[in-house]
Amino acid sequence: MKRLLSPPRLLGIGTGWDNPGFPVIYPQRRGYRMPKLPVKGLPEGDNGRLLVRLNRQHREGIDRYGLAKITNNANQKSMIILVLGHDDEEAIFMPYDIRTGLAVSRAERLDFSIAKIGMPGKVLWYVNSPDPAVYIPAWIAVVGTILAVLGLVIGVIPLIS
Q1: What is the DSSP string of 30-56?
Q2: What is the pTM of this model?
Q3: Phi and psi dihedrals of 28, rounded to 5?
Q4: How far, in Å, are 95, 127, 142 from residue 152 at the CA level?
């Protein structure tokens, strides 16, 4: 299969679902042009999870459990997703919520591109995820980091004075 690489950009500023009111700047190549793959529902054990299953040959270097931005090239709708593998090379598997977010239906052929996201986009995905198993630990980590920085500042002030 022939894949077309879209022209590279030095910086991209995230917008939309992955950027709720906060500019995300990350190196961007705008993703790879993928072959049109039929959309299927997730396997039984993955129900209720916001992830996409895609064969390794279509993931373009994105690791298993990696976060990526998937874009529907037909309407330019995009989402940040969790990517897992699948044996089927001829399909992309996604749940109802992601299909709705990308405005694609089951069995429809999806013309899409996929690209890695930077660290700010990953942090925003974790804290904005609708899954409590993801966002609760993420918010605990954010609060812990803020408290650590605050403790460091409070500890340094007497040393400076």
Answers
A1: --EEPPPEEEEPPPGGGTT--EEEE-H
A2: 0.68
A3: -140, 135
A4: 43, 24, 15
